[in-house]
Amino acid sequence: MIVALAGGVGGAKLAQGLYHVSPPDSLAVIVNTGDDFELFGLRISPDADTVMYTLAGIANPATGWGVVNDTRATLEMLGRYGYELWFQLGDNDFATHIARTAQLRAGDSLTEVTRRLSRALGMRAALLPMCDEGVATLVDTPAGRLAFQDYFVRRRHADPVSGIVLDGIEAATITADAAQAIARATVIVVCPSNPVVSIGPILAVNGYRSALAASSAPRVAISPIVGGKALRGPADQMLAGLGHDVSAFGVAQLYGGLVDGFVIDHADREQAERIGALGMRVLVTDAVMRDEPDRQRLAREVLDFAADIGSSKR
Ligand code: GDP
Ligand code: CA
After folding, report:
1. Is the pLDDT assigned to residue 24 strictly greater than 90?
2. pLDDT (tens digit, 9 = 90+) per residue, 259-296?
3. How far apart are CA 153 and CA 215, in angstroms?
4. Which residue of 92, 171, 191, 226 is surrounded by the most CB atoms within 10 Å?
5. Closest CA to 202 of 52, 54, 36, 66
6. What is the set of domains in the chain, with CATH numbers?
7. What is the number of the ligand closest to the CA of 289?
8. How many angstroms does the Cα of residue 107 sit away from the middle of ligand 1?
């Protein structure tokens, strides 16, 4: 069993690569739910949906999120009713949120609902929310403490970030499914997702750090920072705002003690030695996934790297 930890768009790219280069039911993706929120009374799980649509083969390739060729009739009608349309939701996407909300209201856990939705779309990898409890990522900025989607989408992640609060995290616990997947893992992959607001919340849920520490599987992370910058989104600004080094090395420092191997881009080759000194093996490669063949190429390299680490770990 390959276990991947992922946020949204960056995580989904590598998760799709892993999905396509390995037997389809041998992958479990544990996904951040700190971005989840309610809109129009509907429960939206942006990162889970991005991974689900991507692995089900229906993601919009232009954005990396949302459903390909989706229409906007529902949103436009809501606009006529006077609602502010700051969060893009296609009609197909609305159906996902309606189904999720209805099933949660009927009393099923987020894990159970997510399993049902992803299976219905033909996704054979297991899609596991990081927890069933509600956790909300809040972002401290000069404009005050903002709900995550307010910061990220409505205000286009333009505010400097001075702190992150994970509301509800004390009560959140690793799910039985995620614990079992990690216990059975032969490889653990920390995808190139935002280390602060995608991987950070997963690692902050009670039980993940100890489960990862207890695993004898090789654990490999891929840097989302290439050449001192995030390929998209605010990961670089967030690292800076929180006082971390804005580099692959800075990300490696955050994962110190949690992973055995770290993958960086050629652009960051000169950091390999410093990262190695953190107690990780380092793979220097082309870490940018431009298209689908690239995702599979990087996935293969990550699995080979992990196998190599695994053969020396025991
Ligand atoms: P979000 O939840 O949609 O913001 O997505 P994630 O947290 O999963 O991923 C965001 C991160 O993915 C950003 O920091 C990007 O730098 C990183 N990213 C996106 N594409 C790539 C890629 O091709 N290679 C690498 N190494 N990182 C990537
Ligand atoms: Ca996200």
Report:
1. no
2. 999 999 999 999 999 999 999 999 999 999 999 999 99
3. 36
4. 191
5. 36
6. 36-132 (1.10.8.240), 137-169 (no CATH), 176-313 (3.40.50.10680)
7. 1
8. 33
